[in-house]
Amino acid sequence: MIKGILFDLDGVLLSTDQFHFHAWKALADRLGISFDRHQGDRCRGVSRMESLEIVLQNSIHPYTPEEKQQFAAEKNRHYRTQGLTPADVPEETVHVLTELRRRGYQLALASGSKNAELILQKTGLGSLLDGVVDGMDITRSKPDPEVFCKAAQVLGLSPRDCVGVDDASAGVQSIRAAGAIAAAMGPAAQAGEGDWNLRTLSQLLERCPGTEAAL
Ligand code: BG6
Ligand code: MG
Questions:
Q1: Which site in 15, 33, 161, 196 is 20 to 30 Å from 59, CA atoms measured?
Q2: The overall pTM is greater than 0.70
Q3: Chain centroid to CA 43: how far?
Q4: Helices 146-154 and 169-178, interaxial angle, to 10°?
Q5: Exposure string (b/e) for 43-69, b if CB count within 10 Å is 16 or more?
Q6: CA nearest 180: which of 210, 152, 207?
Q7: How far is the CA of 48 from the centre of ligand 1 (A)?
């Protein structure tokens, strides 16, 4: 029986995936490296430094570890300048989270982002969640199952009683490895990678009905 739902942040609850793409693109442009949407999609769900390696794959220049740290910091400064407010949270996200809670499900964040707390604060999304696990809490990034296992744990649940929702291949693999049901969105859903492949977040409401007791 499904008791908990574990949400990725970027590209699932918010369109911050677009901000990540634009921040990497700005760095790539400055360095004279080509970087397109397809490569941007490969950065979904993977850590900041792994994303940087994807960006640098089209460069012939061998950069030092120090330079790479500077590039990652430059991208992160750009990313953090986004002026997110509660108005940037899609109404659909608020509706789905509120309704799932009303139906008796526990909700947690399972994000690989080290900026997640800042984003939850700026948008007020934190108040709609019962637990948060983010990039600051894990040592192994998706596709490792750590983030989804810990998110289930903060809810006091087994991953087997949870659904994970993610827009990235790495995220779907992470959910599966944790032993939860994988609900794919965005590119991962289009590729049919999930146990459930959702076109919209609202479709979760069809898959997660209310229990008599909760309604
Ligand atoms: C994930 C994004 O949520 O967080 C990735 O999908 C990003 O694109 C990763 O690289 C790490 O984010 P941050 O905010 O720690 O740089
Ligand atoms: Mg994502």
A1: 15
A2: yes
A3: 11
A4: 60
A5: bbbbbbeebbebbbeeeeeeeeeeeee
A6: 152
A7: 6
CB 129 within 8 A of CB 107: yes
Strands, E, within 85-161: which ranges? Answer: 106-110, 131-133
Distance between terminal CA atoms of the chain?
A: 16
What amino acid occupies position 23?
A: A
Q: Whose CA is nearest to atom 14 of ligand 1?
A: 113
Q: Is 45 left (phi over 0), alpha (psi -120 to 50) or beta?
A: left
Write out pLDDT tens, residues 124-174.
999 999 999 999 999 999 999 999 999 999 999 999 999 999 999 999 999
Q: Which of 140, 116, 160 is nearest to 13 (CA)?
A: 116
